[in-house]
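Standup, Tuesday
Yesterday: got the pipeline producing structure tokens again.
Today: sanity-check two examples.
Blockers: none.

Example 1:
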Amino acid sequence: MAAITSAQTGNWAATTTWVGGVVPGDGDTATIAATHTVTVDTATTVGTAGATGTAAVTLSASTSALVINAPLTAKGDIANSGALSGGNNGTTTSGSLTFNTPSGSTYKISVNLNGSSINFAGVSNTTQFVVTTSGLGGNFFLGGSYGGPLTLTYVKWYKSGSATQTAVFGGGSYNVNITRTIFDTVGCISFSSSNATVDFIFSYCDIRNPLDTANGNRWIYVGYTTAPTSGTRTFDHVTAYSTVAKNGYVLVAGGIVLDTCYLYNTMLGASSLRQSTFKNNFLLWNTGSYDLLGLQAKSNTSVYDNAFWTNGENPHYIGEATGGAISANTVYQNVFDGNGYVGANSGDLYLPSDVGTFRNNININKAGTLCNTMYSGAVLTAKNNTSYNSYGMNLGETTGAATQIAVARNNLFVSQASGIYSNSAFVRQSSFSMNYNAFYNMTDAMNLNHPTLSPSNSYLAFPGKTVVSATATAGTNDTTLVPRQARTTPRLSLRRPRSLQAACRLGITSTSQARRRIRAGFKAWTRKHN
């Protein structure tokens, strides 16, 4: 066993590359000196299989480089103070990195200098650069006290970290660009920074079987706390799958776009999103009472064009943390599907804690109540939503305040198990606007415990149901009829003449005449009905 240092730039297997002409092998350690680039060109094993903290390969200076273009097995750390890369050898990928880690030990790819870089690149989804452990009972991870650019493209990162050890962590002042990468059987993936100029790109990635239980039970943590002045921050086309419940956390000042992600039992809960856009995603949840998607209160987050599916007891699809003072959250154009699950508690689609808007959403298959203003500071606008074969809308649960509901308007409830209702803690304000709502085929008297409404406001008293408050009566513009009949402005129709002869009989000889005829008819109708 020997400690061997590079003599010049060259291939690992060449004797001229190393001092004394000895090629480092199993049981040896290797150091790459300043200005030297060593390329692993043939299958190589190096290191002493020591305890945690033992280095197998050391890149000693910022100008040192290791290129892995063939399988490298490391019995110890890769201590990187320079440039570590590998995988893309022309049009094929023959490079890989395997840590041979003894049971109870943890090896790592460490980043020891600011600016030290890591760049692993495969060729395709089926020809990847693989970073893994030999499965001897230990694990490995990537991280360090310093940082430099991290780039992973077409990489499989396998069996890294543990329930208590992050698999990949970093941040600081360097760019992160991870694309087309699979993380399988890994601890938490964690990045954070207060730098306003760095990139964070996490795109077209697949996360399977997350292991973390000690760091918030998370599959990912992204915490960038300073608004960007340049650079890109993107989280898109990510698939995350777990057989048990896992959290995610995304706290990004200045915004990040989460686009076209598929999350199975791996939610973004714990009030995680801040100043972000969450769109075109699918969240599938199979167990428990959790927030599938958590929002920072007043964080100016937009949640739209998503599908939420659950099959569990008391789901909270979108919840907010209390506090914050930025601006309102908006939730719109989403589909919530409860899969017909019936439990002791139906759950809630949106639980605002401050200012929030919930509009143009669809609630089906007993997903839950549209909104629940259980927090005393909630100020909610709920309009243009459709709830079919599900539950109604809650105006308070355990606490209440006089300014909770700004607007509840133009909502459609069809075949509901309950209507708009509130618990006794709810305090209604005089400016409350609950109008132009439509109710059809309401089937159950359950939960019809209503707030007191003044005559100037509207509420629909369902036929045959008992309304607690005598003043909770139907408003002028509410309806129990088939929704098509709920109109505030009548439609005018001018049938197109079927022939030139018919047009002549009507006295219409041009498009302008047709328009005048319509305007005259509308004026006549208005005089008659006003």
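Example 2:
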Amino acid sequence: MRGIKRLLLTVTFVLTLVGVQWLGAAKTSAAGVFSGIEVETALKVNTESGIARYVDVKWSTWKSGSYLYRLNVKTNEEVQIGSVGSGGTKYYEDWVGAENGPEFGNKYKYRIGNSDGTDVSAYSAEIEVPNPAPGVAPSVYLNVYQKTFTIGVLGTGQLTKNANIVIERSANGVDGWKAVKELKAGTYEKDFEVKDTIDEPLESMTTYYYRAYYKNSYGNGPAEVENKKTEKVEPDFMSIAGVKVSAGVMKADLDVAEDIRHISTAKTFEVFINGKHYKDFKGNSSYHTYISVPLHYSTTDNFTVKAFWDFNGKRYYATKEISFKAKSKPLGGTKINGVTKINANQVGISWEKIAGAQGYDIYQGSKKVKSVNGKTNYFVYKKKGAGKGKYKVVAKIEEKVNGKKKAFNNAKKCKAVKPKENSKKFNVSGDVGGWDKQCFCRVSSVKLTGNTYTITAYAVNKRYYTCKKWKTLYIAISANGKTVAKKKFKNYALNLGGRKSKKLTFKIKGKSGADIQNFGDWSASAYAEWNE
């Protein structure tokens, strides 16, 4: 009987030298003119991605003028795709996914016949182009700490360009997998960190499993779970290497140094003073955390520093803690910057603050005239006879000792200072030499008595010729950016020889009662305009 022989479709994978596989081979023959024709098909697949590349069609008996056709089994539509020609064994590559080529997920048959269809045709067996779901698992390593894990994924060319990466978590590594993150399609060739942000937080001291797989529009790839078990979610405990103490007055600065092998930004330090919890301090991201703690003035304090890690409201402590003792340094002597005699009955007193001082007592001779708080370092004392005698400022501290208040001060270290006149000197520099034609005024000091400012200045003539007068001379005194005294002189006689300088004194009325020696930002300026 002359007819189409029935052939079985066999599917095999043979690795070729160009890195592809053969999937399936189909043969058939036809009666009549095409007796003995054999049409074979094989699906060529990329071995790395598992994606079909093209259908390879082969035939060995033909008649000149015949054509190759592709039949879509799903739609029963047939298209002519090539010419048979004449000669020996022939091949045709039908590219999958190309324009007008085979489509993923469809089944096809191939036949050889005349274009008018009058002759009996020879068909191949049916061949299926599979959907290119990912065929490999990502190359993944996981490192879990607290609520985050690092996942490293190596790209696999064409596949990862078109596939998302799905990361899931399970409590036992078998079932109950829940999504943690889905990463958009891309070529994942670098390590990256993903935060585990699902609704159920990680439980402390519990083992979890993670897995990752590729996913595209055709399906999911396999997921590898083996060797992807996390370590227990527990504190990465650091050891406290030591604590350096810098004791000051009423406080100490602690430098908590950590064991450099175990650094974590999640650490917190507990500080205890004399057995009582004082405060918690968040650790820094470096190897050192600096902490300031209070000290008692009259007794030695005992300190303990502990490190802990807080997870879900529970504290897990490091095995090592540091204990030490510290005592306040004594109050140093108060340094007076100046005592200004503003007038016979008024003085201004300025001093440097003492660390830890709660207040200051001001003495005129042996008599205490005023007490101020520890935030103050300037005071104006107004009373008849205030301009006489010497003044000193004594820092003090008060605390309970055995349940009773006791005062401590630095009186023995304080020196008395006599009031000075209300004046200020200015830094004057430069010489009178030079070739430039100038004749100017430079202020060197200012003194205030009542409301009269006595200004000492120098006329400096850098010219080679005599400067007979200043057409205009303007002098101004300022405190904290505001003018408190000023005066303009017209046609001020000078008669200053060439390359000479001359001391001058001016008196200007202005604001009274100001402490120009100690209080405020004082400045003086002068402008002189001269004629030939």
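Quick observation on example 2: Helices lie at 158-161. The chain is about 0% helix and 50% strand.
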